[in-house]
Specification:
This protein is α/β, with parallel strands linked by helices. Helix content is 38%, strand content 18%. It has a six-stranded mixed sheet with strand order 8-4-1-2-3-12. Helix 7 runs antiparallel to helix 11. The radius of gyration is 20 Å and the shape is globular. The protein binds zinc ion (ZN). Zinc ion (ZN) binds next to helix 6.
Protein backbone atom coordinates (compact mmCIF):
# COMPACT_ATOMS: atom_id res chain seq x y z
CA UNK A 1 0.00 0.00 0.00
CA UNK A 2 1.14 3.49 -0.73
CA UNK A 3 0.08 6.51 1.23
CA UNK A 4 -1.84 9.29 -0.41
CA UNK A 5 1.18 11.60 -0.57
CA UNK A 6 3.18 9.01 -2.50
CA UNK A 7 0.27 8.34 -4.79
CA UNK A 8 -0.15 12.05 -5.41
CA UNK A 9 3.54 12.28 -6.29
CA UNK A 10 3.43 9.42 -8.76
CA UNK A 11 0.10 10.22 -10.38
CA UNK A 12 -0.20 12.40 -13.45
CA UNK A 13 -2.44 15.46 -13.25
CA UNK A 14 -4.82 13.83 -15.75
CA UNK A 15 -5.14 10.74 -13.54
CA UNK A 16 -5.59 12.91 -10.45
CA UNK A 17 -8.44 14.66 -12.18
CA UNK A 18 -9.99 11.28 -12.98
CA UNK A 19 -9.48 10.08 -9.42
CA UNK A 20 -11.25 13.17 -8.10
CA UNK A 21 -14.24 12.21 -10.19
CA UNK A 22 -14.38 8.73 -8.70
CA UNK A 23 -17.06 8.06 -6.06
CA UNK A 24 -16.34 7.70 -2.37
CA UNK A 25 -16.22 4.06 -1.27
CA UNK A 26 -15.58 2.09 1.89
CA UNK A 27 -13.16 -0.83 1.88
CA UNK A 28 -13.08 -3.56 4.53
CA UNK A 29 -10.30 -6.13 4.94
CA UNK A 30 -11.43 -8.98 7.19
CA UNK A 31 -8.12 -10.50 8.22
CA UNK A 32 -7.39 -13.42 10.50
CA UNK A 33 -5.19 -11.15 12.66
CA UNK A 34 -6.42 -7.63 12.00
CA UNK A 35 -9.53 -6.04 10.49
CA UNK A 36 -9.11 -2.79 8.58
CA UNK A 37 -11.77 -0.41 7.35
CA UNK A 38 -11.08 2.59 5.15
CA UNK A 39 -12.77 5.40 3.25
CA UNK A 40 -11.27 5.92 -0.20
CA UNK A 41 -11.72 7.85 -3.40
CA UNK A 42 -10.10 5.66 -6.05
CA UNK A 43 -6.63 4.85 -4.71
CA UNK A 44 -6.61 7.83 -2.34
CA UNK A 45 -6.94 6.83 1.29
CA UNK A 46 -9.01 9.36 3.25
CA UNK A 47 -9.20 7.55 6.58
CA UNK A 48 -8.58 4.15 8.09
CA UNK A 49 -9.70 2.44 11.27
CA UNK A 50 -8.35 -0.96 12.28
CA UNK A 51 -9.01 -3.43 15.08
CA UNK A 52 -7.54 -6.73 16.18
CA UNK A 53 -9.51 -9.80 15.12
CA UNK A 54 -8.79 -11.52 18.44
CA UNK A 55 -8.95 -15.17 19.37
CA UNK A 56 -12.75 -15.32 19.06
CA UNK A 57 -13.55 -14.17 15.52
CA UNK A 58 -17.17 -15.44 15.57
CA UNK A 59 -19.48 -13.50 13.22
CA UNK A 60 -21.67 -12.39 16.13
CA UNK A 61 -18.69 -10.75 17.83
CA UNK A 62 -16.81 -9.42 14.80
CA UNK A 63 -19.49 -8.05 12.46
CA UNK A 64 -20.96 -5.43 14.89
CA UNK A 65 -17.39 -4.25 15.53
CA UNK A 66 -16.82 -3.82 11.81
CA UNK A 67 -20.00 -1.70 11.63
CA UNK A 68 -18.58 0.49 14.41
CA UNK A 69 -15.19 0.74 12.71
CA UNK A 70 -16.83 1.81 9.43
CA UNK A 71 -18.80 4.55 11.19
CA UNK A 72 -15.58 5.68 12.86
CA UNK A 73 -13.75 5.76 9.50
CA UNK A 74 -16.60 7.76 7.93
CA UNK A 75 -16.37 10.28 10.76
CA UNK A 76 -12.59 10.57 10.37
CA UNK A 77 -13.03 11.19 6.63
CA UNK A 78 -15.67 13.84 7.35
CA UNK A 79 -18.36 12.02 5.43
CA UNK A 80 -21.50 9.95 6.01
CA UNK A 81 -22.81 6.64 4.70
CA UNK A 82 -25.27 8.53 2.46
CA UNK A 83 -22.33 9.85 0.43
CA UNK A 84 -20.78 6.39 -0.06
CA UNK A 85 -21.32 4.60 -3.38
CA UNK A 86 -20.72 1.15 -1.95
CA UNK A 87 -18.77 -1.02 0.47
CA UNK A 88 -16.26 -3.57 -0.80
CA UNK A 89 -15.44 -6.35 1.65
CA UNK A 90 -12.33 -8.47 1.23
CA UNK A 91 -12.97 -11.67 3.20
CA UNK A 92 -11.04 -14.90 3.62
CA UNK A 93 -12.17 -17.64 1.25
CA UNK A 94 -13.72 -19.89 0.33
CA UNK A 95 -16.68 -17.68 -0.51
CA UNK A 96 -19.18 -17.02 -3.29
CA UNK A 97 -18.64 -13.49 -4.56
CA UNK A 98 -21.92 -13.59 -6.51
CA UNK A 99 -24.07 -14.20 -3.41
CA UNK A 100 -21.69 -12.68 -0.85
CA UNK A 101 -21.80 -15.81 1.31
CA UNK A 102 -18.60 -16.72 3.17
CA UNK A 103 -18.32 -20.48 3.61
CA UNK A 104 -15.92 -21.92 6.22
CA UNK A 105 -12.57 -20.07 6.21
CA UNK A 106 -9.93 -22.20 7.99
CA UNK A 107 -8.66 -19.12 9.88
CA UNK A 108 -12.08 -17.82 11.02
CA UNK A 109 -13.56 -20.14 13.62
CA UNK A 110 -17.39 -20.37 13.77
CA UNK A 111 -17.83 -18.91 10.28
CA UNK A 112 -20.15 -21.25 8.41
CA UNK A 113 -22.09 -19.95 5.39
CA UNK A 114 -22.28 -16.38 6.69
CA UNK A 115 -24.41 -14.19 4.36
CA UNK A 116 -22.03 -11.25 4.69
CA UNK A 117 -23.43 -9.23 1.79
CA UNK A 118 -27.03 -9.50 3.02
CA UNK A 119 -26.08 -8.64 6.63
CA UNK A 120 -24.20 -5.49 5.55
CA UNK A 121 -26.97 -4.53 3.09
CA UNK A 122 -29.57 -4.74 5.89
CA UNK A 123 -27.39 -2.57 8.11
CA UNK A 124 -26.16 0.10 5.68
CA UNK A 125 -28.72 0.02 2.81
CA UNK A 126 -26.11 0.69 0.11
CA UNK A 127 -24.51 -1.67 -2.47
CA UNK A 128 -22.22 -4.24 -0.86
CA UNK A 129 -19.60 -6.32 -2.68
CA UNK A 130 -17.85 -9.33 -1.14
CA UNK A 131 -14.68 -10.71 -2.72
CA UNK A 132 -11.99 -13.20 -1.73
CA UNK A 133 -9.30 -11.12 0.02
CA UNK A 134 -6.45 -12.27 -2.21
CA UNK A 135 -8.53 -11.66 -5.35
CA UNK A 136 -9.33 -8.17 -4.07
CA UNK A 137 -5.63 -7.59 -3.36
CA UNK A 138 -4.73 -8.72 -6.89
CA UNK A 139 -7.36 -6.46 -8.43
CA UNK A 140 -6.15 -3.53 -6.31
CA UNK A 141 -2.56 -4.00 -7.47
CA UNK A 142 -3.75 -4.38 -11.06
CA UNK A 143 -5.84 -1.20 -10.98
CA UNK A 144 -3.83 1.09 -8.71
CA UNK A 145 -0.62 -0.58 -7.53
CA UNK A 146 2.45 -2.54 -8.64
CA UNK A 147 0.54 -4.28 -11.43
CA UNK A 148 -0.68 -1.19 -13.27
CA UNK A 149 -0.19 -1.67 -17.00
CA UNK A 150 0.27 -5.46 -16.65
CA UNK A 151 -2.48 -7.80 -17.83
CA UNK A 152 -1.04 -11.04 -16.44
CA UNK A 153 -0.42 -10.89 -12.72
CA UNK A 154 -0.22 -13.33 -9.85
CA UNK A 155 -0.74 -11.78 -6.41
CA UNK A 156 0.30 -13.85 -3.42
CA UNK A 157 -0.42 -12.86 0.18
CA UNK A 158 1.51 -14.63 2.93
CA UNK A 159 0.08 -13.78 6.32
CA UNK A 160 -2.21 -15.65 8.75
CA UNK A 161 -2.96 -17.80 5.69
CA UNK A 162 -1.68 -17.84 2.11
CA UNK A 163 -3.96 -16.59 -0.65
CA UNK A 164 -3.66 -15.97 -4.35
CA UNK A 165 -5.29 -13.66 -6.86
CA UNK A 166 -4.69 -14.42 -10.54
CA UNK A 167 -5.34 -11.91 -13.32
CA UNK A 168 -5.10 -13.28 -16.84
CA UNK A 169 -5.56 -11.09 -19.92
CA UNK A 170 -6.68 -8.27 -17.62
CA UNK A 171 -9.45 -10.30 -15.95
CA UNK A 172 -9.68 -11.95 -12.57
CA UNK A 173 -9.51 -15.74 -12.91
CA UNK A 174 -12.60 -16.98 -11.07
CA UNK A 175 -13.17 -20.58 -12.18
CA UNK A 176 -16.54 -22.28 -12.40
CA UNK A 177 -17.54 -21.58 -8.79
CA UNK A 178 -15.38 -18.56 -8.02
CA UNK A 179 -12.67 -20.43 -6.12
CA UNK A 180 -9.86 -20.41 -8.71
CA UNK A 181 -6.48 -19.10 -7.58
CA UNK A 182 -6.51 -20.70 -4.12
CA UNK A 183 -2.73 -20.89 -4.41
CA UNK A 184 -2.22 -21.45 -0.69
CA UNK A 185 -3.86 -24.84 -1.05
CA UNK A 186 -1.67 -26.21 -3.81
CA UNK A 187 0.01 -29.42 -2.65
CA UNK A 188 3.70 -28.98 -1.91
CA UNK A 189 4.27 -32.18 0.10
CA UNK A 190 1.93 -35.03 -0.80
CA UNK A 191 3.31 -37.04 2.12
CA UNK A 192 2.70 -34.12 4.44
CA UNK A 193 0.11 -33.26 7.06
CA UNK A 194 -3.58 -32.72 6.42
CA UNK A 195 -4.58 -29.07 6.04
CA UNK A 196 -7.89 -27.90 7.59
CA UNK A 197 -9.14 -27.51 3.99
CA UNK A 198 -9.03 -31.33 3.67
CA UNK A 199 -6.11 -31.48 1.23
CA UNK A 200 -2.65 -32.79 2.20
CA UNK A 201 0.63 -30.87 2.35
CA UNK A 202 -0.79 -27.48 1.34
CA UNK A 203 1.56 -24.52 0.93
CA UNK A 204 -0.47 -22.65 3.56
CA UNK A 205 -0.18 -25.48 6.07
CA UNK A 206 3.60 -25.42 5.69
CA UNK A 207 4.53 -21.77 5.23
CA UNK A 208 1.85 -19.35 6.55
CA UNK A 209 2.48 -17.31 9.67
CA UNK A 210 0.04 -19.55 11.52
CA UNK A 211 1.94 -22.67 10.42
CA UNK A 212 5.33 -21.24 11.37
CA UNK A 213 3.94 -20.55 14.85
CA UNK A 214 2.28 -23.99 15.03
CA UNK A 215 5.51 -25.81 14.18
CA UNK A 216 7.44 -23.79 16.75
CA UNK A 217 4.89 -24.48 19.49
CA UNK A 218 4.72 -28.18 18.64
CA UNK A 219 8.50 -28.39 18.97
CA UNK A 220 8.40 -26.52 22.29
CA UNK A 221 5.71 -28.86 23.65
CA UNK A 222 7.82 -31.82 22.51
CA UNK A 223 10.71 -30.44 24.58
CA UNK A 224 12.84 -29.53 21.56
CA UNK A 225 12.62 -25.77 21.80
CA UNK A 226 14.30 -24.71 25.04
CA UNK A 227 16.48 -22.14 23.30
CA UNK A 228 13.50 -20.71 21.38
CA UNK A 229 11.38 -20.67 24.53
CA UNK A 230 14.08 -18.72 26.37
CA UNK A 231 14.22 -16.25 23.48
CA UNK A 232 10.41 -15.91 23.54
CA UNK A 233 10.41 -15.32 27.32
CA UNK A 234 12.98 -12.57 26.88
CA UNK A 235 10.80 -11.00 24.18
CA UNK A 236 7.77 -11.26 26.46
CA UNK A 237 9.61 -9.44 29.24
CA UNK A 238 10.33 -6.61 26.80
CA UNK A 239 6.93 -6.69 25.12
CA UNK A 240 5.72 -3.62 26.97
CA UNK A 241 8.53 -1.56 25.49
CA UNK A 242 8.87 -3.21 22.08
CA UNK A 243 5.61 -2.93 20.13
CA UNK A 244 4.68 -5.55 17.57
CA UNK A 245 5.00 -3.82 14.17
CA UNK A 246 2.42 -6.19 12.67
CA UNK A 247 -0.14 -4.87 15.15
CA UNK A 248 0.48 -1.26 14.16
CA UNK A 249 -1.14 0.58 11.26
CA UNK A 250 1.28 0.58 8.31
CA UNK A 251 0.60 4.27 7.83
CA UNK A 252 1.01 5.33 11.41
CA UNK A 253 2.09 8.82 10.39
CA UNK A 254 -1.28 9.44 8.78
CA UNK A 255 -3.41 11.46 11.21
CA UNK A 256 -6.57 9.93 9.72
CA UNK A 257 -5.48 6.41 10.67
CA UNK A 258 -6.56 5.08 14.05
CA UNK A 259 -6.74 1.74 15.78
CA UNK A 260 -10.05 0.95 17.43
CA UNK A 261 -9.64 -0.64 20.86
CA UNK A 262 -12.30 -2.62 22.66
CA UNK A 263 -12.42 -3.52 26.37
CA UNK A 264 -9.27 -5.42 27.50
CA UNK A 265 -11.07 -8.66 28.32
CA UNK A 266 -12.13 -8.90 24.69
CA UNK A 267 -9.03 -7.66 22.91
CA UNK A 268 -7.03 -10.86 23.15
CA UNK A 269 -4.47 -10.72 20.38
CA UNK A 270 -1.96 -12.98 18.76
CA UNK A 271 1.12 -11.53 20.37
CA UNK A 272 3.07 -13.34 23.03
CA UNK A 273 0.74 -14.34 25.82
CA UNK A 274 -2.41 -12.39 26.56
CA UNK A 275 -3.36 -13.88 29.89
CA UNK A 276 -3.16 -11.70 32.96
CA UNK A 277 -0.29 -12.28 35.34
CA UNK A 278 3.24 -13.44 34.63
CA UNK A 279 2.63 -17.01 35.78
CA UNK A 280 -0.23 -17.48 33.36
CA UNK A 281 1.84 -15.91 30.58
CA UNK A 282 4.58 -18.43 31.28
CA UNK A 283 2.12 -21.30 31.45
CA UNK A 284 0.33 -20.42 28.21
CA UNK A 285 3.27 -18.91 26.36
CA UNK A 286 2.40 -19.16 22.70
CA UNK A 287 5.17 -18.29 20.27
CA UNK A 288 4.06 -16.39 17.16
CA UNK A 289 5.63 -16.29 13.68
CA UNK A 290 7.28 -12.94 14.29
CA UNK A 291 9.11 -14.33 17.33
CA UNK A 292 10.24 -17.35 15.28
CA UNK A 293 11.54 -15.04 12.54
CA UNK A 294 13.43 -12.90 15.05
CA UNK A 295 14.82 -16.03 16.72
CA UNK A 296 15.96 -17.32 13.32
CA UNK A 297 17.64 -14.00 12.66
CA UNK A 298 19.53 -14.33 15.92
CA UNK A 299 20.72 -17.79 14.89
CA UNK A 300 18.59 -20.20 16.97
CA UNK A 301 18.77 -23.50 15.02
CA UNK A 302 15.14 -24.66 15.55
CA UNK A 303 13.79 -21.28 14.38
CA UNK A 304 16.17 -21.24 11.41
CA UNK A 305 15.02 -24.73 10.37
CA UNK A 306 11.33 -23.75 10.58
CA UNK A 307 11.85 -20.55 8.56
CA UNK A 308 14.03 -22.36 6.01
CA UNK A 309 11.38 -25.07 5.54
CA UNK A 310 8.72 -22.39 5.00
CA UNK A 311 10.95 -20.47 2.57
CA UNK A 312 11.67 -23.61 0.54
CA UNK A 313 7.95 -24.42 0.34
CA UNK A 314 7.26 -20.88 -0.90
CA UNK A 315 10.05 -21.27 -3.46
CA UNK A 316 8.49 -24.51 -4.77
CA UNK A 317 5.09 -22.82 -4.85
CA UNK A 318 6.42 -19.86 -6.82
CA UNK A 319 7.98 -22.17 -9.42
CA UNK A 320 4.63 -23.96 -9.79
CA UNK A 321 2.87 -20.60 -10.17
CA UNK A 322 5.31 -19.45 -12.87
CA UNK A 323 4.81 -22.69 -14.80
CA UNK A 324 1.03 -22.48 -14.54
CA UNK A 325 0.42 -18.82 -15.33
CA UNK A 326 3.52 -17.34 -17.03
CA UNK A 327 2.85 -13.98 -15.31
CA UNK A 328 4.45 -10.63 -16.07
CA UNK A 329 4.80 -9.98 -12.33
ZN1 LIG B 1 -5.22 -26.58 2.33
Amino acid sequence: MQNKDTLADTTTSKQSLNHNQLPLVVGVDLGGTQIRTAVLRGPTLLSRVSLMTGKNPSPGRIIPRVYTAIQEALGKAGTTIEQIAGIGIAAPGPLDSKTGVVFTPPNMADWDHVPLRDLFTEHFHIPIFVENDANAGGLGEHMFGAGRGCNNIVYLTISTGIGGGVIIDGKLLEGVSGTAGELGHMTIDWHGERCPCGNIGCLEYIASGTSIARKANEAIHAGEGIELLTFARTMLQHSTTVPDPSALPTQGHDPATVELRFPPEETDDTSLGSETGDEQQEEHLHVNARTVALAAESGIPLARAIIQNAAEAIGVGLVNIIHCFNPEI
